[in-house]
């Protein structure tokens, strides 16, 4: 087992790269054929491929990395851990609902729902309209409905609460002794794929919507793997030993999924709104191959190539959360105007990226200098240097 003081720098790099990918993912969403907040008049199959491919594993990787981070955070801040998690996750989620999400909904309203009026008119009308929705038993849908892209924050907080008893159990249980015999085998790690298949096959027909219970438990499974296993040296050795096999699994899964979703509406409908059938099981198996294969390949590759420190990591670790909270709204606002240009989707995608990324960084630089903004965006407040004056 890795020492509690040993920092897994490749996890920091993976966190940075995963959230960076999320920025680009949302920057090209106006150009695929799937529903989103803003859409270009000309849509592209090329961006469909990108969306399908990266959507298959991007959030799985983020939750796996978050599981690792949560374990180490628990070890370093035991006494005030829940307070820290609440301030870092729930406070910015609430602030985001009030400050960050409404501009997205305003742009969406004037783009698709015929809203007439300025932003202040919309801001006054939005709360009662938003709260009028009834999701019945799908309580989790409120996270995405009110919080849009920042549903990740309450998801992560809820998963943390669930795994607190697991943490207490593992601290008194020598996991390495019990699990090493399984983890050091070439095939033992593949047993971890079974819960993902069971969750998706059983729950997707009941909760097919994105970020509903099926997705929540799938992501929580990846969070749990990060929380429990990634710090285990034998687990990482097994991942490295099977790394190229994971890559092949990811490639086969992705190629198969892309082929199926682009050859017949029945496959696409089964993917989006499945029902219990052999076809659903097959689509489930392919989907899990994509997430499991790519995430573990990337984990193994990063553990071999990226386990080193760099000054960019300290700066990025502080910036990731506020940049994540801000990025989609800024993309949508800039994108709304850029989509009106008479240019190709590629040119518009580049323009959205090269305007929204710098502007988001500028917004972050403002936030980091103001304590009130730091707190509501999940950062620790700056403590001013205090001079101790000792009288003679």
Mean pLDDT: 89
Task: Please give the number of β-strands.
Answer: 0
Radius of gyration: 22 Å
Q: What percentage of amino acids are in beta strands?
A: under 5%
End-to-end separation: 53 Å
What does this entry look like structurally?
This protein is mostly helical and 392 residues long. 71% of the residues lie in helices and 0% in strands. Helix 1 crosses helix 15 (278-305) and helix 4 runs antiparallel to helix 8. The chain starts with 8 loop residues before the first helix and ends in a 16-residue tail after the last helix.
Summarize, please.
The protein has 392 residues and is mostly helical. Helices cover 71% and strands 0% of the residues. The longest helix has 28 residues, at 278-305.
Q: Top keywords for this entry?
A:
18 helices; mainly alpha; disordered C terminus; 392 residues
Note the topology:
Layout: H1 9-28, H2 45-55, H3 58-76, H4 81-99, H5 101-112, H6 119-130, H7 141-147, H8 152-171, H9 175-183, H10 193-203, H11 213-228, H12 233-241, H13 243-261, H14 265-272, H15 278-305, H16 311-338, H17 345-367, H18 371-376
């Amino acid at each position: 087992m890795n020492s509690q003081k040993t920092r897994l720098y490749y996890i920091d790099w993976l966190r940075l790269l995963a959230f960076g990918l999320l920025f680009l993912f949302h920057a090209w969403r106006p150009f695929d054929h799937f529903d989103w907040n803003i859409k270009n008049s000309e849509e592209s199959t090329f961006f469909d491929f990108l969306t399908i491919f990266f959507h298959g594993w991007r959030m799985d990787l983020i939750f796996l990395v978050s599981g690792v981070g949560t374990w180490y955070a628990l070890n370093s801040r035991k006494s005030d851990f829940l307070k820290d998690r609440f301030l870092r996750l729930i406070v910015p989620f609430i602030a985001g609902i009030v400050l960050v999400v409404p501009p997205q909904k305003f742009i969406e309203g004037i783009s698709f729902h015929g809203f007439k009026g300025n932003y202040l008119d919309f801001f006054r009308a939005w709360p009662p309209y938003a709260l009028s929705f009834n999701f019945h038993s799908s309580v989790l849908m409120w996270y995405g409905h009110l919080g849009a892209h920042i549903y990740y924050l309450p998801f992560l907080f809820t998963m943390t609460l669930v795994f607190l008893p697991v943490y207490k159990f593992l601290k008194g249980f020598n996991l390495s002794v019990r699990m090493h015999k399984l983890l050091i085998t070439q095939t033992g790690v593949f047993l971890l794929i079974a819960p993902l298949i069971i969750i998706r096959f059983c729950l997707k027909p009941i909760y097919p919507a994105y970020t509903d219970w099926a997705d929540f438990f799938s992501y929580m499974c990846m969070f749990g793997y990060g929380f429990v296993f990634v710090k285990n040296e034998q687990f990482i050795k097994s991942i490295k030993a099977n790394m190229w096999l994971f890559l092949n699994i990811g490639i086969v899964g992705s190629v198969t999924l892309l082929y199926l979703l682009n050859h017949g509406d029945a496959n696409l409908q089964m993917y989006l709104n499945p029902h219990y059938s052999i076809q659903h099981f097959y689509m489930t198996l392919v989907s899990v191959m994509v997430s499991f294969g790519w995430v573990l390949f990337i984990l193994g590759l990063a553990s071999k190539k990226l386990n080193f420190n760099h000054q960019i990591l300290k700066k990025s670790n502080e910036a990731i959360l506020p940049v994540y909270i801000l990025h989609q709204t800024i993309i949508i606002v800039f994108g709304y105007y850029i989509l009106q240009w008479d240019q190709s989707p590629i040119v518009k995608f580049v323009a959205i990226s090269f305007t929204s990324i710098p502007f988001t960084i500028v917004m972050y630089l403002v936030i980091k200098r103001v304590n009130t903004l730091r707190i509501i965006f999940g950062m620790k407040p700056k403590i001013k240097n205090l001079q101790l004056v000792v009288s003679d």
